[in-house]
Prior knowledge:
This protein has 181 residues and is mainly alpha-helical. Helices cover 71% and strands 0% of the residues. The chain is globular and about 50 Å long.
Amino acid sequence: xxxxxxxxxxxxxxxxxxxxxxxxxxxxxxxxxxxxxxxxxxxxxxxxxxxxxxxxxxxxxxxxxxxxxxxxxxxxxxxxxxxxxxxxxxxxxxxxxxxxxxxxxxxxxxxxxxxxxxxxxxxxxxxxxxxxxxxxxxxxxxxxxxxxxxxxxxxxxxxxxxxxxxxxxxxxxxxxxxxxx
Length: 181
């Protein structure tokens, strides 16, 4: 077995554990103090940057041994997730309930994308083959996405009866409603 396989897997697991601790100790309490739309928006921003997956084509040219089909599958899933997240943020900022529906769509899309990417990585023997930017993405960003989608699911389920309140985000630091222009 290549020593890079346990190194990459170990680094991913460490990142996952660290992100779970940060989520439990800091993010979850912070989210609990926010109204529903604001909490969802904060979690959705993490997904907007999934277009970083476009880097896979550069990595492929530099020797990362992924097929063009596999790279395309990754890019379509991640860029699609980024677009869904950005549109959901836009809708939530407009106080449209469709924003929460799109957040659910993102959860489903991310789950499917993750399963397909893991399956593709196994089929193409990619574990341990990553280096450079691809390694950094797999070790630091992918575990953040996994924990982030878990937090997003938790917020969508736990706060499903809360409305997307139109007035709360207009509150100023002093707690008074400000006029929206």
